[in-house]
Design goal:
4-stranded antiparallel sheet, Uracil-DNA_glycosylase-like_sf
């Protein structure tokens, strides 16, 4: 029987459908990191044990893509095809997974479960969050793990949440290296680093180990909103966004 679109409470517990909460660690040194799926793509309290049930019904009704960044307004996979792998088929999960494996890139989100205000797609309306703090392995000395975050919020408020460094007591933020990379990255695309109030890049040192680097993209759901916060100064908006994305995906691949 198909899922009926019933009225739901203003806040209903939701769970991530594509992360194994018991074993979320990845061994890849390149990771794409988002926040949490939209309402129509998550497991809800009412059907958490019946995943095929929610996929077959809600997806047909909404037209969303049942995978990471599956919202109809999310541009992420179009960016990925343009700047990293032009051979992927959009809306084809197996094609995307094949590309990720070929390029040795892992994909996950920062939130494992949360409550949501009504059916909002905005991250600010996700409350009582359980964070995915153990999705990566510590790089060894001389190694670098790169995390491409799909927004500043994902990097600054979710990944590097105040509990992050308590959970990972072997990690320490390297402020000078962070600022140096950020300034150079923005200058390379003819932006103004002085316009950035919240960081787009963070470098983290592993005690007796390697380095973790995190770079934030403009939000794939609304990339033109507040591009000034990503250093846009005098350049044409589309050109600046294209240059930012081109350099960000190139950074992930190197």
């Amino acid at each position: 029987m198909l899922f009926a679109d019933i009225s739901i409470p203003k806040s209903t517990r939701e769970y991530h459908p594509w992360i194994n909460i018991d074993t979320p660690v990845t061994q890849e040194s390149r990771i794409i990191l988002g926040s949490f799926p939209i309402w129509s793509l998550t497991k809800h309290e009412m059907d958490v044990n019946d995943q095929p049930h929610f996929v077959s019904s809600r997806i047909k009704k909404t037209g969303e893509f049942p995978f990471f960044y599956g919202s109809t307004v999310n541009r992420f996979w179009s960016w990925y095809r343009t700047y990293l792998d032009g051979n992927i088929e959009l809306l084809n999960k197996e094609s995307i997974l094949c590309s990720l494996r070929k390029n040795q890139i892992a994909i996950t989100d920062t939130i494992l479960s949360c409550d949501r205000k009504e059916k909002s797609a905005l991250d600010k309306y996700l409350s009582n969050r359980v964070y995915n703090h153990k999705f990566f392995s510590y790089p060894s000395c001389g190694e670098v793990t790169k995390i491409l975050c799909t927004s500043k919020g994902v990097m600054n408020e979710m990944l590097l949440h105040k509990t992050f460094f308590k959970y990972h007591d072997r990690l320490q933020l390297n402020e000078p290296a962070s600022n140096q990379f950020q300034d150079q990255f923005i200058k390379n695309i003819i932006g103004d680093p002085q316009l950035i109030t919240k960081p787009i890049f963070r470098q983290i040192a592993v005690k007796d180990g390697g380095v973790i680097q995190c770079l934030a993209l403009p939000s794939p759901g609304s990339p033109y909103r507040r591009l000034i916060d990503f250093g846009l100064h005098e350049a044409e908006t589309n050109t600046y966004l294209e240059n930012y994305l081109k350099n960000a995906f190139a950074w992930l691949q190197t």
